[in-house]
Design goal:
five-stranded mixed sheet; Serine Threonine Protein Phosphatase 5, Tetratricopeptide repeat; 3 domains; 289 residues; Glutaredoxin; alpha/beta
Length: 289
C-alpha cells in the first residue's frame, strides 16, 4: 500500500477492526473496502486510484484496505475468489461492488451512484432527483434496453435483481447464470445468489409448524434446524432463523460440509439490519476461532 494509506480517509482493515471500522462506521459514511495483495498486478494499478479518489472526495467516503494474504479468514468470510475485489459498505451492509481494475472514469461513475459529495467535490450525478422506480417499471425498462444493447451485460445483472424483487426467482436465476465471469463475482450478484440459495433451500421443505415439531421431537435433527432457520429468515424472523444456524454450528459444525456457516454467511449478505448482522457475526466468530 502507498503512503496515502496513512491519511484519515484510507486505512488498513483486519478481522479485529472490521466490525467497528467498516460495519459500524458505514452507518455514518460509506466505506469502500479494497481486497488486494502485494503480488497482484491489477491491484497495483487500482489501489493508487482508489486512494487518490478517497483523498479527493475528502471524507465523503473512506477506503479500507484488506490484504487478503494477511487476512485470509476475513477474505473467506466474504467469499473473495479473485482480486482486486472492491465492496461498497453502507449502513452496515454490502450495497455494491466490482471485481477487477476499473479505469478512473468508471470508478467515478461507481462512486457517483452511492456517495453524496461534500461541498466543493465533483458532482455525484447529473440530473435532478426523480421519483423512485417500481420493480415492474425497472423490468420493463431493462428488457427494452437489453433488446437494443444485448452485449451490455451490466443490464442483465440489473434485470436479475429487479426480477428477484418481484418474486420471480426462476427468471432471476436464469439471468444470473447467464452473466459473464466478471459480473458473476460482483457484490450485487453475490447477494442475489445468496437470496436465491435461501429461497431454493425451502422450495419443497415442510411447513414452519412441521419443522418446529421435528426440532422439538429430535434436537439433533440438523436438517430440520437448517430448513427451519431458512423459513424463519424468509418469513420475517431473522433472529430466530440465525439462532437455528448457530445451534448447528455449535453442536455439529461439520454437518453437511459446514452448511451452518454457509447459511450464516448467505443470511448476512441478504439482511439489511446492520446491528443484527454485526451481533451474529461476532457470535459466529466466537464459535469458530
Amino acid at each position: 500500500m502507498t503512503d496515502t494509506a496513512s491519511t484519515s480517509h484510507v486505512f488498513d482493515v483486519n478481522q479485529q477492526t472490521f466490525e467497528t471500522e467498516v460495519l459500524q462506521a458505514s452507518t455514518q459514511i460509506p466505506i469502500l473496502v479494497d481486497f488486494w495483495a502485494a503480488w497482484c498486478e491489477p491491484c497495483k494499478s487500482l489501489g493508487p486510484i482508489l486512494e487518490k479518489l478517497a483523498n479527493e472526495f475528502n471524507g465523503s467516503f473512506r477506503l479500507g484496505k484488506v490484504d487478503v494474504d494477511a487476512e485470509q479468514e476475513l477474505a473467506a468470510m466474504f467469499g473473495i475468489k479473485s482480486i482486486p475485489t472492491v465492496m461498497l459498505v453502507k449502513d452496515g451492509e454490502v450495497l455494491d461492488g466490482f471485481t477487477g481494475a476499473l479505469p478512473e472514469g468508471q470508478l467515478r461513475e461507481f462512486l457517483a451512484r452511492h456517495v453524496q459529495p461534500l461541498e466543493g467535490e465533483p458532482p455525484a450525478a447529473d440530473g435532478a432527483d426523480s421519483p423512485a422506480e417500481t420493480p415492474e417499471a425497472a423490468i420493463n425498462r431493462l428488457q427494452q434496453a437489453i433488446a437494443t444493447q444485448p452485449a451490455k451485460a451490466e443490464l442483465k445483472l440489473e434485470l436479475a435483481l429487479a426480477l428477484m424483487r418481484v418474486g420471480q426467482a426462476d427468471a432471476a436465476q436464469a439471468e444470473l447464470d447467464a452473466l459473464p465471469a466478471n459480473l458473476a463475482t460482483d457484490a450485487r450478484a453475490q447477494r442475489l445468489r445468496s437470496e436465491l440459495d435461501l429461497a431454493h433451500a425451502v422450495k419443497e421443505a415442510p411447513s414452519l409448524t412441521e419443522l418446529q415439531q421435528r426440532v422439538q421431537a429430535n434436537p439433533e435433527d440438523w436438517a430440520a434446524h437448517d430448513q427451519l432457520g431458512v423459513r424463519l429468515l424468509l418469513e420475517g424472523d431473522p433472529d430466530a432463523g440465525l439462532e437455528q444456524f448457530l445451534v448447528i454450528l455449535q453442536k455439529a459444525r461439520d454437518w453437511n460440509e459446514g452448511q451452518a456457516k454457509k447459511r450464516l454467511l448467505a443470511a448476512f449478505a441478504t439482511l439489511d439490519d446492520a446491528e443484527l448482522v454485526g451481533r451474529y457475526r461476532r457470535r459466529m466468530a466466537s464459535m469458530m476461532f
